Every structure is written in C-alpha cells, then in structure tokens.
C-alpha cells in the first residue's frame, strides 16, 4: 500500500487529477484542519467555517479532472477558501468594513504569503487558547515560554512548588494539543 503522506503537493495534485481517491484523502487530511482554522479566524463562526472548507473540497472532488495549479496546492486551497469568505462578506454587506481594516489584500500565489497567513492565524489561535487558560496556568505558561524562566525560577516568583509549576505546564501543553490539534501544536513548538 502506497504511503501518500510522503508525496509532495505537486505529486498529489497530479494524482488527484487522475481520480486517485487516496490522493484526494491525503490532500483533505493535510489541509482540512488548517483551512478550517483560517476560515474560522476570518468568519468567527464555526458552522460557516466548516461549510466553506467543505464547499472547497466538494468543488475539488467534483472538478478534479480540471484541477490545475500554478503555485501550490495549499495556495490554491487558501485562495479558494478566501474567495468563499469574500462571498459571505459580500452577502452580509460587511465587505466595506473588512476592506477598511486593510486585511483584504493577499498575494495568494506567493508561497511566503501563504506561510505568513498560516503563521499569523495559528499564532492568533494559540494566543486565544492561552488567554482562555485558568489564570495560574496562564501565568506559569507565559513565564516559561515568553520570559524563558525555569520551573525553579517560576516557583520562586509565584511562591508555589516546582511540582505545581510542572503540573501547570503539562496541563497547558495538553490543553493546547487537544484544542488545536497535534500538527498545529508541533508546528508552534518548533517555531518557538
């Protein structure tokens, strides 16, 4: 059985175009969660975000024989999701406000822009998850990962035991993994 996880986006695009269902599933698995997070960050509505992503994948499945990309699969998918989001904004008559905020211009064909969009959205989501942590856990987590204090230094500063510090850090990491997914959490850890 072929391991599609090792295939590049270009290879997967060719296989999707040739009606390879397992290649389509790999593209879906690779980008579904990230696209949902991207859409949710723009729409702030879970159901709309899910619908947008599903519409993009449904379109891809139904039109895969014509699936041709000029840059990368991720850029194509992000552009498609963004276009659907703009349709929603137009429909809701809020596109003017969105344009005034200056967030509307994205050079979708740029790999660097694609990366920056995802990095910005992931960082924002992580910040929201950290802000939602219980106060003491959040405090410990920020001291460790923003001020780079050791468990011992945090314990001394907060007047708690090192075991309590370590427990807070483990629970915070689990909370981030559970709420954001393992892939996003690993990317976050690697880029810290």
> Runs with pLDDT <50, length 5+?
104-113
Radius of gyration: 20 Å
- Gross geometry: elongated
Percent helix: over 70%
Can you walk me through this structure?
It is a single chain. This protein has 192 residues and is mainly α. The chain is built from ten helices and no strands. It has helices at residues 9-17, 21-43, 46-62, 73-91, 95-100, 111-131, 135-145, 151-158, 162-180, 182-190. Helix 2 packs across helix 4 (73-91) and helix 9 crosses helix 10. The longest helix has 23 residues, at 21-43. InterPro entries: RNA_pol_sigma-70-like, RNA_pol_sigma-70_dom, RNA_pol_sigma70_bacteroid, RNA_pol_sigma70_r2, RNA_pol_sigma70_r4_t2, RNA_pol_sigma_r2, RNA_pol_sigma_r3/r4-like, Tscrpt_reg_LuxR_C. Keywords: Sigma factor, Transcription, Transcription regulation. Residues 28-93 form the RNA polymerase sigma-70 region domain. Residues 124-176 form the RNA polymerase sigma factor 70 region 4 type domain.
């Amino acid at each position: 059985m072929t391991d599609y996880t090792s295939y590049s986006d270009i290879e997967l695009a060719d296989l999707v175009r040739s009606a390879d269902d397992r290649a389509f599933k790999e593209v879906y698995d690779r980008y579904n969660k990230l696209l949902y997070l991207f859409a949710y960050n723009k729409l702030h509505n879970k159901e709309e975000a899910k619908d947008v992503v599903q519409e993009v994948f449904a379109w891809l499945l139904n039109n895969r024989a014509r699936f041709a990309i000029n840059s990368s699969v991720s850029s194509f998918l992000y552009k498609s999701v963004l276009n659907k989001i703009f349709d929603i904004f137009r429909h809701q008559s809020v596109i003017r406000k969105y344009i005034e905020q200056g967030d509307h211009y994205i050079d979708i064909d740029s790999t660097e822009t694609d990366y920056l969009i995802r990095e910005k959205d992931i960082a924002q989501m992580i910040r929201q998850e950290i802000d939602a942590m219980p106060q003491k856990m959040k405090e410990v987590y920020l001291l460790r990962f923003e001020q780079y204090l050791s468990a011992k230094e945090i314990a001394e500063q907060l007047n708690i035991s090192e075991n309590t510090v370590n427990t807070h850090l483990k629970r915070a990491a689990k909370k981030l993994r559970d709420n954001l997914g393992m892939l996003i959490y690993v990317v976050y850890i690697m880029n810290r």
